[in-house]
């Protein structure tokens, strides 16, 4: 796969690599909420399905969970899973969405950017599937993780800019997990009442990076449409069959708010459908958190966009 995409390396990957260093620190809501991390026991995950992509090579730390910003996070995921959130059969539209939470590839904001998003989609008749993809290893204990993150962003530790080739190589486990997720949904489409041609993907921050990479280089995992929620917006080479794209970003996002809008221009230049919402305030990581900022309305806008394209109406 690396050989196939080497010739199509884009500025998006370079911009994503630059933003990834900052995104490694999970950003929370701008409103006042406790950012204190607290270890929690593994929560029930009814319906989670192992994707069979194998354990993360060389992993030593075991999967662990913690709370932060009144939400649930998971670290050191070594085996990927997919959790279905299916709509009431009476409301099912046949459309499905793979939901990729963010967290800088070291943690996953599984509640705010995963389960809560999936529940909201299912309520609108869309089958949603939360992808718990494999993550880069961090210290096993929570105190060690917090110390590692503080040092990473204190300016005392060198922060080398990852080159595109290394970044793509490091994303191979996550790309494999996304491909496996699409394959599983299509394999069980009849059981889950899903149209195999109406499977989209929405990602947040690092999950948006994975969504974009899946859309552009995922081979057999091509989404029918994509949502990029506060991911990098640097330019990309857009193929002729690029999927319709929805983008939401806050202007005061400390990671990607000042990086320009090249991704939007790229889609428009290629004459591919794109909708872009730039909210005045919201910061990074707003997800489904209730906030006084207009960024809280991103999901309703996403749902309206899906309706405009006919994806929340039952397929003929």
Percent in strands: 15-25%
- The radius of gyration over CA amounts to 18 Å
Q: What is the CATH topology descriptor?
A: Rossmann fold
Shape type: globular
Structural class: alpha/beta
List the secondary-structure elements in sequence, H or E.
Answer: HHEEEEEEEHEHHHHEHEEHEH
- The count of helical stretches stands at 10
CATH architecture name: 3-Layer(aba) Sandwich
Main beta sheet? 8 strands, mixed
| Mean pLDDT across all amino acids | 88
- Unreliable spans are 1-12, 21-27, 159-165
Looking at this structure, what is the CATH superfamily? Alpha/Beta hydrolase fold, catalytic domain
Biggest sheet, spatial arrangement of strands: 2-5-8-6-9-10-11-12
CATH class: Alpha Beta
Number of beta strands: 12
Helix content: 25-40%
Structural domain tally: 1
Whole-Å distance between the termini? 36 Å
